[in-house]
Structures are given as structure tokens and as C-alpha cells.
Predict the structure of argininosuccinate lyase.
Amino acid sequence: KEIKLWGGRFEESVTDAVEKFSESISFDKVLYKQDIMGSRAHATMLAHQGLMTSSDRDSILLGLDEIEKSIEAGKFVWRTDREDVHMNIEAALTDLIGEPAKKLHTARSRNDQVVTDLRLWCRDAIDNILACIKSLQVALITLAKKNEGLIVPGYTHLQRAQPVLLQHLLLSYVEQLERDAGRLIDCRSRLNFCPLGACALAGTGLPIDRFMTSDALGFTAPLRNSIDAVSDRDFVLEILSANSITAVHLSRLGEEWVLWASEEFGFLTPSDAVSTGSSIMPQKKNPDPMELVRGKSARVVGDLMTLLILCKGLPQAYNRDLQEDKEPLFDSVNTIRGMLEVSTEFAQNITFNQERIQKALPSGFLDATTLADYLVNKGVPFRTAHDIVGRSVALGLSANKQLQELTLVELKSINSVFEEDVYEFLGVQNSVKKFCSYGSTGSQCVAEQLNFWVSKLEIK
Ligand code: ARG
């Protein structure tokens, strides 16, 4: 067995069970790029500070290049007995270039190394998720543009409420996604500080320059406190929280579209390209991708819970428990990206069933609140108007008529304030036209929203 990099004080090697239990190479090898970047910056700084010669630095840099190439070519052998990505790369570098490699870990600990790698990885992950969020926004806006003027029933409590423009509904999801992106952007700027040089926890007596490595790695500045630098994973918690909120938004979109694709609603049809069948029922065409979007939100929220519980009992500075931060982080990021990608494809592959929606609109008294507004315009106090319309709805229900089908005589039998102009307020088409408050479903207001997004996201 190879002697561990930390093996000096040990007389026995670890048992196979302990080795298997404590390795992280099986999942942290994805950090290789960040680990190599960090080592390049660290070696360059060490040479600049006179802590290694420039020829040692050059052989380290060349060696790291070679290792990176061999990893990317799939030729690098990852060894479980070398525990994690950091020791795999350092040991491989020693195998490759010999003595100079032994200087690389000067004024560095895996504690500051791993968290530097992780911050760099999170930075890229956030940029990736942001691009996926934008694609979904663009798909939703494109869908909205295609469906100008289409009115759909708006629901509260999943009961018919008021008529809304489909564009308005689709843009509501775009707004939510914008805040999801905003949370990630905030998180990115807060996490972009450099732990490197914090070493194990206390910093070092060697003359390093933390500002130099921080700059080289594109961080805003080195973290101010070395203990904080190696202790915290709050930046991971922030990404996992932001992802959880995004996941819950997507889950609601999934729920709505699954519902709308049902026979009972029949408001939308996904194309075959985003549907799947049943192994037993030949007639079935299921909206599985959006069901899975809804389902996978559970994992993303679970990943956040894992990390919260992981961190809650830890005394300050590095604890090995923190190795368990990676799998939930990687899972959350991969899952949310998949959810965003599939939601985008679904949005690109659905059609709204105009005819079916038209047929559904007359029932449910969607224009009742507009009728109350009519009475308010006539000077009736709102509470009284609410009661009058309530009684009009009751009359409609007993006569099996929509509000617009009630005659003026019938309406006047409830209250004499009704006049012929009431019919301009009844029926969903008329009703929708009456909305004019800022952010409302009126066609002018929705057109303004749509224009805002088209120009903000530079959609052609
Ligand atoms: N694989 C470890 C992790 O992921 C790296 C840090 C280990 N440090 C230590 N002193 N054992 O957290």
C-alpha cells in the first residue's frame, strides 16, 4: 500500500472499510478543473513571494497542464486510496515531476483548498443556471407572443374566478423566474471571496500574498477571517435555497400544465416529442416531463434540508462532516438545470386549444366581479354591489343562464340601478376589456408587460 500524504505519524494503514467509507474521490473529482486552477494560482504566488523557485513553479505548471489533459482525455487514474480530488492530483503531480511537487502544498491545507474549489465551482454553476432560467423565460414569452388575445379562465382555489389573458398568466411565471435569477446573482456576489491562504484555520506564518491569489482566481477579495473562510458553507446553503424556490416555482408550473393537459381541462396539448405512453393502456399520452419536474422539486428541497442539518451541529472551523456538502450541491444544481431545460422544451412543444378554452369560458360567472365594478361606477357602495351581483348570480343559476343572458327586466327585478349599458360589462370578452389598473389583465397593460420583457431579454 502507498503511504498516505499525511502518513508520517502513522504506523498502521486504515482498514478497507474506513478507506471506502471516507473517500470522496467518487464524487469530488468533478472539482478537478477548479482544483488545478487554484493550484496554478497558488504556485504562481508562492514563487512570486520567494517560497519556491521559478523553475519549481514552471515544472508544477507544466505538470498540472499535463494532468488536466489526461483527466480530460479520460486517461487519468483516480485512486480511492488517495482519498479525494486534492490528494489525487497532488500525488499524481509528484509521480510526474518529483521533488518540485512537494512544494505545492506550502501554506495551504485541504481545508482552504476544498472550499476554494467549491466557491469556484458554484460560480460557474450559477452562471449555468442563469442561462437556463433565461431560456425558459424566452420560451414562455415566445409562447405568449404566439397566443395574443387568448382569454382563459383565471382560477383561485382552483374555482373559476375572473377571465385573464393567457399572456398575462404566462408572464406571471416569467416574473417569478426573474426573482429566482436575482437570488442567484445576489448569492454569486456574496460567495465570490477567496478562502485560499486561510490554510487549516489560522492562516500561516509564511509570507504569502492572499490578494494575489484572490485576484488571479477572479475573486473580489480574500475572505477577511481565516476561521470563517474554512468553516462556513453558507454560500452552498444560499444556492440550495435559491434552487429550492426555483424548483417550487417550476413544480407549480408543472402542476398547472399537467392539469391543463387532462381530458377534464383539455386546455393544452403537448406534442408527442414531450409526451410518453403507457406500457399497458394503448390510448395513453402522458405529460410525464412536467410530472417529473414537479417530482424532482422534492429532491432539490431535500438537498437543502440535508445541508442545513449537516451544518447545524458543527463547531467552528473545518469538520470532516463538511465533505458531505458536495453530493447535495451537485445534485441540486444538476436537477434544477434538468428541470429548467425540460420545462423550456415543454413550453416550446405545447399548443393551447383555443376552441376548448372558448367553450369553457361562458360558465362559472367569470364576469361577476366586473359587474360589481359596473355598479360601483353607478355610485353603489361596493358591499352593496357585491350583494346585488350575488343575487344576480343566484338568479342566473336558478334560470340556468349566464349573467349576460339575463334580461334587463330580470336584472332590474334585483335592483333598479341596472341600465342597458350593463351589457357592455358582461361576457368574458367585455369583462377583460374593462381591466385597466397597472399590472392588470387588460390588453393594454399586458401588451406593456410583454414589450418590457421582449426588450429586456432582447427577443426578436
Ligand atoms: N475531501 C475533503 C472534503 O471534501 C477535503 C478536506 C479534508 N480535510 C481534512 N483535513 N481531512 O471536505
Residues 24, 28, 84, 110-111, 114, 320, 322-323 surround arginine (CB under 6 Å). DSSP finds 18 helices and six strands in the chain.
